[in-house]
Automatic annotation (TrEMBL):
Gene3D superfamilies: Aspartate Aminotransferase, domain 1 (3.90.1150.10), Type I PLP-dependent aspartate aminotransferase-like (Major domain) (3.40.640.10)
Family annotation (Pfam families): Aminotran_3 (PF00202)
Matches recorded under InterPro entries: Aminotrans_3, PyrdxlP-dep_Trfase, PyrdxlP-dep_Trfase_major, PyrdxlP-dep_Trfase_small
One Gene Ontology molecular-function label: pyridoxal phosphate binding
Protein name, UniProt field: Aspartate aminotransferase family protein
Known cofactor(s): pyridoxal 5'-phosphate
PANTHER family linked to this entry: GLUTAMATE-1-SEMIALDEHYDE 2,1-AMINOMUTASE (PTHR43713), GLUTAMATE-1-SEMIALDEHYDE 2,1-AMINOMUTASE 1, CHLOROPLASTIC-RELATED (PTHR43713:SF3)
Record flagged with keyword Transferase: yes
Source superkingdom: Bacteria
Keyword field contains Transferase: yes
Length: 417
């Protein structure tokens, strides 16, 4: 499958070879660095993509959740063009910034005040800075298998790869007893507990409500700041996964689709914590309020991805996941999808995992094969087997994906067993 993938993409192979001469690894996004080389895309339209080798795809990757609106949402294109007419970035505050901030504070229960950044990574770095400043403490409880950005990535076991020199306290995800033990042991110096309410990069593993409620109680008990990284999960309802679960953190980080597809990040929360930015804690950033993101984000969140649209997308995703899981169950094969709503990741084990796990070499091989088989069928997923539905994906597209997974189960049954 790998050889067939490579043979069908000589232009992508050539681009990759040239790119490695000027960029280590051949590009600047680690998720797009996979063997033998990534397929290079030429063009996108609604939920379709065309690569430089002449293949067409249904885009189920959804730009790792940032592509919620697809590649050509007319209302977003229109506001971007209109904004460009008014001039690119004006080194000044503008109405778009206030509008988008008000929209987001009105939607996410924990957001009393917020500030914009250019990425989810920055949003998380700033939230951690705010928590440390507010508490006067240092230790940060993080989840093993969690991901909060390039320099905030935490392995399941062993030391982190080159990351920040902060006193991180790695904690097993969905293990309330261990989280309680660790938080109490470090209570004096615990500044923050940061958690994805569903692990995204870690395999679309939802946190149990009990686990998040435990973290909420531990933050209250120790005086630490509870931070939900909702960079990916904010799409789970009009007010994010926090509103769906009814658990309100002290701070929330946002990113991805909220800027309508432009570079985006935001962090915010309790007014008393955020008040530090009035004077004590600096937070500059040339592009924080860039006019394109502010304008596209306002239309995206104010007019397109309304709370009703968020509920509808959630329901579509749940229905799709049930159909996909019926495929593996009917065939009696260890093939299924975890996730919530419109985000899901394939796994090759039964029962489906409820915690992050270290995959065996066999599972890694199946994951690669699944990716290549989907590419051959004209379906573009994240290399790790993650799907993030975008709004333009239609029912016929979903049918096509379900049949492709069915064909995979049939043709690869021997390997899966
Ligand atoms: N947090 C989570 C949960 C993410 O999934 C990501 C990106 N995949 C980030 C933070 C980092 O966001 P960005 O890539 O915009 O820096």
């Amino acid at each position: 499958a790998r050889a067939a993938y490579a043979a069908a993409r000589p232009r992508s192979a050539d681009l990759h070879r040239r790119a490695t001469e000027v960029m280590p690894g051949g590009n600047t996004r680690s998720v797009l660095a996979y063997a033998p080389f990534p397929a290079a895309m030429q063009r996108g339209e609604d939920c379709r993509l065309w690569d430089i080798d002449g293949h067409a795809y249904l885009d189920l990757c959804g730009e790792y959740t940032a592509g919620l609106f697809g590649h050509s949402e007319p209302r977003i294109h229109k506001v971007l063009h209109a904004t460009l007419e008014g001039g690119i970035n004006l080194a000044a505050v503008g109405q778009g910034e206030e509008r988008l901030a008000r929209l987001l504070c009105g939607r996410f229960p924990s957001l009393e005040r917020l500030r914009f950044t250019n990425s989810g990574t920055e949003a998380n770095l700033m939230a951690l800075t705010a928590a440390r400043g507010f508490t006067g403490r240092n230790t940060i409880m993080v989840m093993q298998g969690g991901y909060h950005g390039g320099v905030l990535t935490f392995p399941l076991a062993g030391p982190s790869p080159a990351t920040l020199p902060l006193p991180f306290l790695p904690t097993p995800y969905n293990d309330s007893a261990e989280a309680t033990r660790l938080a109490r042991a470090h209570a004096q110096d615990l500044a923050a507990i940061i958690v994805e309410p569903m692990l995204g990069g870690g395999g679309c593993i939802p946190a149990t409500k009990t686990f998040l409620a435990t973290l909420r109680a531990l933050a209250d008990e120790t005086g630490a700041v509870l931070i939900f990284d909702e960079v990916m999960t904010s799409r789970m309802s009009g007010g994010g996964l926090q509103a769906r679960l009814g658990i309100t953190p002290d701070m929330t980080c946002l990113g991805k689709y909220i800027g309508g597809g432009m570079s985006f990040g935001a962090f915010g929360g309790r007014a008393d914590i955020m008040a530090q930015f009035e004077s004590k804690v600096p937070h500059a950033g040339t592009f924080n309020n860039n006019v394109l993101t502010m304008a596209a984000g306002s239309v995206a969140m104010g007019e397109i991805f309304t709370a009703e649209a968020a509920e509808a997308l959630y329901a579509r995703g749940e229905a799709l996941r049930a159909r996909l899981n019926a495929v593996g169950e009917a065939a009696g094969l260890p093939l299924g999808f975890t996730g919530l709503g419109s985000m899901m990741t394939v796994h090759f084990r039964r029962p489906l995992p409820d915690r992050p796990y270290a995959a065996t070499a066999g599972e890694e091989g199946l994951r690669e094969l699944f990716f290549f088989d989907m590419m051959a069928a004209g379906l573009y997923l994240a290399r790790r087997g993650m799907v993030a539905l975008s709004l333009p994906v239609g029912e016929a597209d979903l049918d096509r994906f379900v049949s492709a997974v069915g064909e995979f189960a049939e043709s690869r049954a021997e390997l899966l067993r």
